[in-house]
Amino acid sequence: MRKVDSLYVGWVDSSIGALVRQASGILPRSAFVLLTSIDSTIELRDSGIAEKIFRTNHASTTLGNGLVVPGPSLQAIATMFNLFTGFDELWCFDEQPTMPKPDAVWLVSPLELNSDDVPSSLGPWMRDSGCKLGLGDGVGLNYASPTAAAAQLIEELTSSDERPHR
Q1: Using an 8 Å Cβ cutoff, are 15 and 141 in contact?
Q2: In the chain, which residue ranges form alpha helices assigned H by DSSP?
Q3: Is 68 within the bounds of a domain?
């Protein structure tokens, strides 16, 4: 983990799917999750998966090109529709998000936050939108958070003997 500007960022050998399957993990603790990439699809608003999610979870909505789902429902939605198989991106919020993710903000591979430059608009958007954690995968898992505690939890969840595997 490293601190860049006001964010704690890093890369771990895991995936969003592995973290979502971990019921005691960090993702079910978020009130809302903004999905912005599912299997490299970034135009989620009008995708077939959005339609399926809306039919089964009426509390879900769109924001920009992304989908907002209740955090406590994320694991069930992911299981029901076999989501998060790689090249996925999501953002966690304590409050209903109101600012769409800008196109210049991303965490999906080939970006590797252990060594690559952090997108310059990532910190300002996370701060202004109230985002508590961002995750992007593909080849490993990138994370970004304004709090050391959330970043440390990702590190701990992915480094223990029972760590989530891809």
Answers
A1: yes
A2: 16-21, 48-56, 74-81, 122-129, 148-159
A3: yes
